[in-house]
Amino acid sequence: MLNATWLDTFTTLCDVGHFTRTAELLGMTQPGVSQHLHKLASQVGKPLISKDGKSFTLTPAGEAVLAIGLARRQQERALQDTINIDDPHVGDISIGCSGSFAMWLYPHILDRMHHAPELVIRVTAAPHMSIVTSVLSGEFDLGVVAEPINHPRLEAIELTREELCLVVPRSLAGQDFDLHRLNELGFVAHPDGYAYADDLFSLNFPKDFKGADRLRVRTFVNQIGQIPIPVAEGLGYTILPKSGVDAFVRKKELAIIQLPKQRYHDLWVISRKGRSEIARIAELRDFICLAVSALEARFFDVTDQMDMTTTDR
What we know:
Layout: H1 4-16, H2 19-26, H3 30-44, E1 49-52, E2 55-58, H4 60-83, E3 90-97, H5 99-114, E4 118-125, H6 128-137, E5 142-145, E6 154-169, H7 179-185, E7 187-189, H8 193-204, E8 217-220, H9 228-232, E9 238-241, H10 242-246, E10 254-258, E11 263-272, H11 279-299, E12 308-310
Parallel strand pairs: 3-4, 3-5, 7-8, 10-12
Antiparallel strand pairs: 1-2, 5-11, 6-9, 6-10, 6-11
């Protein structure tokens, strides 16, 4: 039997990815974390990690032990759900969604936590398939995805339609834009940006657009909160869901160019069948639906605080 304390330390280390932060999270010293790791490796009989400077990668044995640690956590959570009072204001909830939606949603989550001090809510930005897989495995209680899911073990509720926005510096509001003009300005690329460009530009520039890989990239950013910064600084344009624009603190320095053909993504909240019957999960799901209704109203409000500029062709 693997030592439960050592296994929990190892699982937390893999989740955090840093010895010092793991020690702080667990209320331990860094040598204490290392000691637990060495003891667990001795118990297994093989090294669990391979160090590379301050970072590390898992060995095959480490991956196998991590799978056990994650499975044990899921079992313990299921046990807690069974024996605890089904209180909507008590317990842990995990949510997976896109980075732009997470940036918009998190302030609302904080407000919810102010009213429920014993509620622990974890929000993780993740790609679409990772969200679906994690909801199926129980790692996420709720997921927000940009397409309907038809799976026998999942429940899905439609949230809203989220606009895909072409975002330029505020100083360029009111100007005409075609693909040539955009390439002169330069694309502020990000992990989802290429797919967004294929989606929006193939719809609006069918003759000239040859694929996102042919766009002139001005810079690349993989932190969702920083993507609009180069645009606000006048260094390029980008494409983001409306939630990502709304959540940007300097959004008054941006302008949204409304192309002739608009593109929307349908957002769905998904959960594993049976999980949504747990009071805290059901209430948070309903809370998200209520919060997102305000977001939906802003999509179609011509008096939006930001300039909505239409280009003529």
